[in-house]
């Protein structure tokens, strides 16, 4: 009888742990935010289909604001928050986002905002509702101009020159006083590592920028190309 009781207790406990695990994957629990900016020419170079614009924008634009977990930075995602409502992107906000957060691949900005909100934004709805999520993202984009920071350090698009990871991180760190993260994409035709994303990390409330040290990055390539 005692044996049966303890087996039952064990089963109940195991099931409770299992439930917690499943729920934490899709609910709004997260530790910090990744604010991800991308270099549009890299999107267009590695993409199988051409981008909608013949010449991609030559400045870093927003990819997304992602609530993330230290144990698994790609989670949470696709949570049970409210779905995107395009009325929340009111006209004045819309005209700002069209500059800071364009769809650099297919040119459908609203659809891009919708997919980012539905996949990431609604996982932190308890902190930032939809209006605040987009307002805050735009404010983050405005607070540091990555393109200008790199230009001031003579890091400008070049067909053959390469930089080390720290060459690129150093001026950004100096300007923002926080460690960013870089992500690259391999160019399938030339096998070079192209700078693709610069990530800033923010605290749980998306108010204070923090170091991205605790976040898994990309294995640092020896030579990074910026084209
Ligand atoms: P995530 O879905 O995790 O936010 O980011 C990955 C996806 O975002 C990829 O499928 C990538 O193609 C997409 N993505 C990145 N930039 C853009 C963009 O400017 N427009 C569109 N439509 N998708 C993008």
Automatic annotation (TrEMBL):
Signal sequence segment: 1-28
What broad taxonomic lineage does this protein's source fall under? Eukaryota, Viridiplantae, Streptophyta, Embryophyta, Tracheophyta
Q: Where is the active site?
A: 63, 116, 120
Q: Name one GO molecular function term.
A: ribonuclease T2 activity
Against PROSITE patterns, the record matches this protein to: RNASE_T2_1
Q: Which UniProt keywords apply?
A: Disulfide bond, Endonuclease, Glycoprotein, Hydrolase, Lyase, Nuclease, Signal
This chain's function reads: Self-incompatibility (SI) is the inherited ability of a flowering plant to prevent self-fertilization by discriminating between self and non-self pollen during pollination. In many species, self-incompatibility is controlled by the single, multiallelic locus S.
Q: Name one Pfam family in it.
A: Ribonuclease_T2
Question: What Gene Ontology biological process does one annotation of this record name?
Answer: RNA catabolic process
Q: According to the lineage, what is the superkingdom? A: Eukaryota
On whether Magnesium is a keyword of this UniProt record, the answer is no
State the PANTHER family in the record.
Answer: OS07G0630400 PROTEIN, RIBONUCLEASE T2
Q: What is this protein called?
A: Self-incompatibility associated ribonuclease
**Any Gene Ontology CC annotation:** extracellular region
Q: Which Gene3D superfamilies match?
A: Ribonuclease T2-like
Regarding protein family, the annotation reads:
Belongs to the RNase T2 family.
């Amino acid at each position: 009888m005692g044996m049966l009781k303890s087996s039952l207790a064990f089963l109940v406990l195991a099931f409770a742990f299992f439930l917690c695990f499943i729920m934490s994957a899709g609910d709004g629990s997260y530790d910090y935010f990744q604010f991800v900016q991308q270099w549009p020419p890299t999107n267009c170079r590695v993409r199988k289909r051409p981008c909608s614009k013949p010449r991609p924008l030559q400045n870093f634009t927003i990819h997304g604001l992602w609530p993330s977990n230290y144990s698994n930075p790609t989670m949470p995602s696709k949570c049970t928050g409210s779905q995107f409502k395009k009325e929340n992107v009111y006209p004045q906000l819309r005209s700002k986002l069209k500059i800071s957060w364009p769809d650099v691949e297919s040119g459908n900005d609203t659809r891009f905002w919708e997919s980012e909100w539905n996949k990431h934004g609604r996982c932190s709805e308890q902190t930032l509702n939809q209006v605040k999520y987009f307002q805050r993202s735009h404010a983050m984009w405005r607070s540091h101009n990555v393109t200008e920071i790199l230009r001031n350090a003579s890091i400008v698009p070049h067909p053959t020159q390469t930089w080390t990871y720290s060459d690129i991180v150093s001026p950004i760190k100096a300007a923002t006083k926080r460690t960013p993260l870089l992500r690259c994409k391999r160019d399938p035709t030339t096998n070079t590592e192209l700078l693709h994303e610069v990530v800033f990390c923010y605290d749980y409330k998306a108010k204070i920028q923090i170091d991205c040290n605790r976040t898994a990055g990309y294995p640092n390539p020896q030579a990074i190309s910026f084209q």
